[in-house]
Amino acid sequence: MSGVSLERIVKRYGALEVVHGIDLEIAPKEFVVLVGPSGCGKSTTLRMIAGLEEISGGTCRIGDRVVNRVAPKDRDVAMVFQNYALYPHLSVADNIAFGLRIRRTPKAEIASSVEEVAGILGLTPYLDRRPADLSGGQRQRVAMGRAIVRHPEVFLFDEPLSNLDAKLRTQMRAEIKRLHKRLGVTSVYVTHDQVEAMTLADRIVVMRDGRIEQIGTPMELFNDPVNTFVAGFIGSPPMNQFEAVVEAGERGPVAVANGARIALPALESLRHAQGRKVIIGIRPEHASIEPMPGASTVPVELDLIETLGSEALLHSSIGEVPFVIKAETGGDTAHLARVEAFHVAPERIKVFDHDTGRVLGAARMGVAA
Amino acid sequence: MANMNLYSRGDKWFVIANMVLVGLFTIATLYPFLYIAAVSFSSGFAAAAGTVVLTPVNFTIAAYERVLSEPEFWRSYANTFIYTFGGTAVSLLIIIPGAYALSRPQLIGRRFWNLFVAFTMWFNAGLIPFFLNMRDLGLLDSYFGIIIGFALNAFNIILLRNFFESIPSSFEEAARMDGANEFQVLWKVYVPLSKPAIATITLFCIVARWNGFFWAMVLLQSEDKIPLQVYLRQLIAELSDDEEFTSTLISAAYSVETVTAAIIVCSIIPVLLIYPWVQKYFNKGILLGGVKE
Known about the structure:
heterodimer, A: alpha+beta, Rossmann fold, 2 domains, six-stranded mixed beta sheet, 8 helices, disordered C terminus, B: mainly alpha, MetI-like fold, 15 helices, ATP binding (chain A), NA-bd_OB-fold (chain A), nucleotide-binding (chain A)
């Protein structure tokens, strides 16, 4: 299995540069998800790996081979498209076999490959049907079958689940994960859905405006986002963020926002930061409704409770600033209606620079400078 | 008819007016066919006297006996088949790749080439330059000249180009990822997806070729190469000039009118037979299920 390596990859349409020199190393067998809002360049990057878009600058390698000038068909990659792009005039079996026929694979081999792939994807009963006679999930499976039948070095997925309904999406997500485990093919997956990214990825690449914001495992991105953008993008519901001013407290720095005083982690960069404006980030799941030793108590005004079952989202506000709390229901929501404050431990709080949005150094006072 | 209660008063009148108009239009289109068929089976006397309205008067097949016994009729009929099907095949072979090339965004100078093709729809050299051109190319009086000289029609190219452009580009991309080259993308993906459009231009080509009269008359001299339409005109002229034939008109079982009508009926039949075969491709939704937008 081959890895994929992108070095200073640039995409320009005329004078307009949309991807600004991306560096990315994808290890063999790794499942990497490119995630970001619309127009962030994630699909363009994927299409450059596929060979469907010309690479304006930089080097793209698949395995050890530079593929900048290699035609898509010779890159040994397969792609699953957002709109499936199944050939409507061909049966399921012929759709899966199309690539093999084009490559003049012997007939007997085609038949056994199609059979095998149909077995893996549960498509055996539908081999004679046309795409129009299939459900959305089945079509998506045919599109994947068309990709895996060729045993490519790399799979590329371009938002493959975005046309499915929520239930089917969850189901197909698990199937893709299972398929990757089974086949172990290097995969690059593009989505704007951070839940898909979190559940599927070995590593996530968060992109914005044609640049990579952060690369890391799902938990790294969740626990240690490098800036407010990643913090707001990864996690559902997103991290609460609000402006605050740093003051010196009795036991360390505190943030003051809308009258609330919140103890901050003992970061080296906050030591002499009195009066500094910062952005405070607190994940909804880290705001507890039960008091904890050492935690700050922040009074809130409860606005609305969204019940999800075992959990509930408490939409509230600190003064004017909206704040979401994720709380366990324990099977009953009556006690949640009486919530007047949340409690947060200092080590759970992220502090970002007010102007750049970058997280303030993880270095802690007294540990390392 | 749909339940009229679902329509408002104004809608009802609109529907009724539509039906009346469509009905009138249908009659206006259908009547000449019925009339010609009736004349072809009527006696020469009745046809000349103008008493045929909708059904044959003094039913006879004498006109058909006369027409079908002419070897020239059969030869010109065969020629028409050659021009029609040979010409249509050559046209499609040129139009399909041409339209595909013009529809591709990566074609260098695409705007220029499209304008270049469209230009010929509005402007052409005219009769005499075209004739001289054909003469200088040595294409006068030949099957090949008729077939190749009229193989390309800008309207058909643009029609098909527009259809190709409407096919989502992910089909092309998927085929390219599957390993197809440009020709395979065209013949294995775009052509099967474009059956309705290709059926339409095939029908246009066939009908134009089948009815082709003027240029065949101008460009062909040999009797053995003329198509049916030119033969029809010659026969009408011949019969009209034949004094013996016209003077014995009253007693004749057939006349110029009935013979003409019989040939017209013979020449219409193949096109009538082709249309239902082509029509089955005129169903929409061929792209259904392939992509989801």
